[in-house]
Amino acid sequence: MSKQWWKESVVYQIYPRSFNDSNGDGIGDLNGITEKLDYLKGLGVDVIWLSPVYDSPNDDNGYDIRDYQAIMDEFGTMEDWERMLSEVHSRGMRLIMDLVVNHSSDEHRWFAESRKSKDNPYRDYYIWRPGKADGSEPNNWESAFSGSAWQYDEQTEEYFLHIFSKKQPDLNWENPVVREEVYSMIRWWLDKGVDGFRMDVINFISKVDGLPDAEPQEGKKYASGSKYFANGPRIHEFLHEMNQKAMKEYGAMTVAEMPSVTPELAQKYTDEDREEVDMVFQFEHVDLDSGPGGKWDLRPLKLRDLKENLTKWQKALEHKGWNSLYMNNHDQPRMVSRFGNDGEYRVKSAKMLATMLHMMKGTPYIYQGEEIGMTNVRFDSIEEYEDIETLNMYREKREAGVPHEDIMKAIYVKGRDNARTPVQWNTTENAGFSTGIPWLKVNPNYKEINAEAAVADPNSVYHYYRRLIELRHNNEIVVYGGYDLIQPEDETFFAYERRYEGESLLVICNFTGENAIFHVPDGYKNKAGQLFISNMEQDQSLSFGNELHFTPYEARVYRVK
Ligand code: TEU
Ligand code: CA
């Protein structure tokens, strides 16, 4: 297992639209990011992952790219971007950009050409098919954003594939010219000084030949085709080619977003000898609270399932490959609301969750606002929501007769706008995010949850994250130590140990709002423990007896020699 800078780093994700607005138009922007780099440096993060800032019509808030080598007007100019990059680098931090090449915007010049005629030179940049004999779509795949994954185009009387929105046509990676276009664009950004990429749904780029129908799903017109487009037949070939033709020579860090990836596949994708990607974002742990009907089909999370799943990933990549560690991003609800308690135990449970995640083996990812314990939001009317995934689902379910209240319940728990309300900087109007009208309403709890208060309070979630990051920077056991789960069946504690060069860390997290007794494992009894970190005041050292008494959402980590 080689030592790498990206294994020792902590990454901070910025969703630029909601981060900080510097010019009062209600939309976050690049200069707004530059204004906050000292705040991020103070937190101690090493790498910034910037969600897309490229020219886009914003059908999917920038994940629909119209020009891969131009900056979205609303976010600023290329000069603003270059200034931000140099300010990031001058603070000793790195920047990775979002690479969205499974699909482009339908307003990209390539697609504008492709749809003109069947013999246009750009036709095969995208995936076009005639309809079935009865005129219906080429297959029964559903779009991730509701409805069919195919859109009929009058001009050439064929359908084009779009796994996501109608304005996000899938690029045809079987076409070597498309691949070369992508690799030269990647090199163009790496030549500008970018340090790597987060690769959007990159395991969707190889589709199964023939694009066969998916197994029909009970009572649904369309069905998930992910069996035929996720982890497809040429995916390893394409990722290795991208590594060889673009990433490798720059030493670029790559984190691949891979819905449907398994630990076994991730071992292959992240095996350093295969030269594909450095790490993946897996989705199994953020699907544990979804029923058979998908993310909107709410199911209570069982702690045992979370322990089992995260442990499966820790063990699968313990000696080969590498894990990413996340419980939050711009697509997921806020972790303290989802996995902790965003009421009376908000601060304590946010720290407990951070302890559980940041003491694991892998590269941790902090999503903007997570470090101050921002929570989910509840807007009363659907008109206050912005996310295309939410709005399309709402319309589809209302047309099917599902009551408004039932749909809103699912949106409150799982909607992506939960993570996209503006970052709460201080107690001034709009939480200091903008002097204009924010593109998405600010969460009304900004008066008590904001960065200014957090930085000023030594006991805040912010300073706890800062300490966790410091511990990772100063203790190789956190980065390179082995991992083993303790008491798998326990429904109250998430406890595990890390081992490295004769030392161990004992990590104990009470996931409940109750007082609880932790039964000390035999191997630790009568041993001396030094407190490594806790979200409560503790004795700095102890000799382990038979049990430890925990208060609600209490977390403790002990170093044992
Ligand atoms: O997300 C991929 C993806 O699978 C998401 O659709 C996610 O599973 C879903 O939103 C959970 O609710 C990436 C980007 O992160 C997302 O923002 C984009 O909408 C999507 O790809 C298309 O680019
Ligand atoms: Ca702005």
From TrEMBL:
Places the protein is found: Cytoplasm
SUPFAM superfamilies for the chain: (Trans)glycosidases, Glycosyl hydrolase domain
Record field: catalytic activity: Hydrolysis of (1->6)-alpha-D-glucosidic linkages in some oligosaccharides produced from starch and glycogen by alpha-amylase, and in isomaltose
One Pfam family hit: SusG_C
Cleavable signal peptide: none
Glycosyl hydrolase family 13 catalytic domain segment(s): 13-420
A biological process term (GO) from this entry: oligosaccharide catabolic process
Molecular function, one GO term: alpha-amylase activity
Transmembrane segments: none
Keywords, in A-Z order: Cytoplasm, Glycosidase, Hydrolase
The keyword Metal-binding belongs to this UniProt entry's keyword annotation: no
Gene Ontology CC terms: cytoplasm
Top class in the EC scheme: hydrolase
The UniProt record lists the keyword Hydrolase: yes
InterPro entries: GH, GH13_cat_dom, Glyco_hydro_b, O16G_dom_2, SusG-like_C
Family to which the UniProt record says this protein belongs: Belongs to the glycosyl hydrolase 13 family.
NCBIfam families named in the record: PRK10933.1 (NF008183)
Protein's UniProt name: oligo-1,6-glucosidase
Organism expressing this protein natively: Alteribacter lacisalsi
